């Protein structure tokens, strides 16, 4: 139990550190050096991740475990499409509306898991999520300029992202594969999807050609650094969703948003207001409440499962309880009821 909890904390910490690091690296690459081809860059991230995992497999650091190829292909392509749609959403909407799109992923995921997986979220966990979303909204959402195309793209981005993250958790548990094994098998499909569509999407959003860009040594250094950090980002994403849940991963994502905002204010002297500070504080309160009540909920479920297991063992060992539960322990010499009579009683 302790090792499992330590592994979860390690996965969460790795996800936060790597994601904040790659945001800082990409901020320098896009804002300072003018490399604005986000979708193409993401395809390179996935390609480097696959190559790194292939080397790790060659070194026998993990075991290759093939499973349903159609599930892997569908999952990989869906993941690639969701990334492309999120980038398009940012390109065709204001920053404020894009933040609202990201906020909508949590309630959408909760709704889908409740409807299709019959997962139950307690009232107190729902309340903590509302507090979290309110805080992130206050800190990040500024303007809400609506347009039809941008709204449709945002809806598609939210839906595909939710499905992809739920599938990440479901596939790992259903086929009993690790996050590394799933990432290794799905990476080529994600990379290929974005590698084909990336230059077109980036050209549509930036009016520039990624292949005609001036790749100076400084730009190349930051691209390589971004790709190396992405290995940790992609791995930790699958690791966190596999060990926790898609909702917890989204909560963690909003923590990263708050950390990036705080980092920009403290070290890069980005413009900041009391509204940003208030929003971050409210979001942190929501995240603490969510983490605490999830822990309590998991402990309660573990206690109930232990109690049920103990009750089953006691019923198996107690002859009287076994008799009441329908287990025959009667004297072998006692007369037995006819089979037809038992069938009739059962059917009635």
Question: What's the arrangement of secondary structure elements?
Answer:
Elements: H1 2-32, H2 38-58, H3 69-92, H4 95-116, H5 123-140, H6 148-174, H7 179-206, H8 217-243, H9 246-266, H10 274-317, H11 319-324, H12 339-347
Helix pairs in contact: 1-8, 1-9, 2-7, 2-8, 3-6, 3-7, 4-5, 4-6, 4-9, 5-9, 5-10, 6-8, 7-8, 8-9, 9-10
Transmembrane segments: 35-59, 71-90, 96-117, 124-142, 148-170, 182-201, 221-242, 249-268, 274-295
InterPro entries: EmrE-like, Sugar_P_trans_dom, TPT_transporter
Pfam families: TPT
Describe the structure.
It is a multi-pass membrane protein. Residues 18-291 form the Sugar phosphate transporter domain. It is found in: Membrane. This is UDP-xylose transporter 3-like. It is a single chain. The two termini are 47 Å apart. This protein is an all-alpha fold and 348 residues long. The protein is built from 12 helices and no strands.
Supply database-style keywords.
single chain, 348 residues, mainly alpha, disordered C terminus
> Which word captures the global form?
globular
Q: How much strand?
A: under 5%
Number of strands: 0
Helix residue percentage: over 70%
Question: Which whole number gives the mean pLDDT?
Answer: 79
Terminal CA distance = 47 Å
Q: Number of helical segments? A: 12
Brief characterization of the structure:
By secondary structure, this protein is mostly helical. It has 12 helices and no strands. The two termini are 47 Å apart.
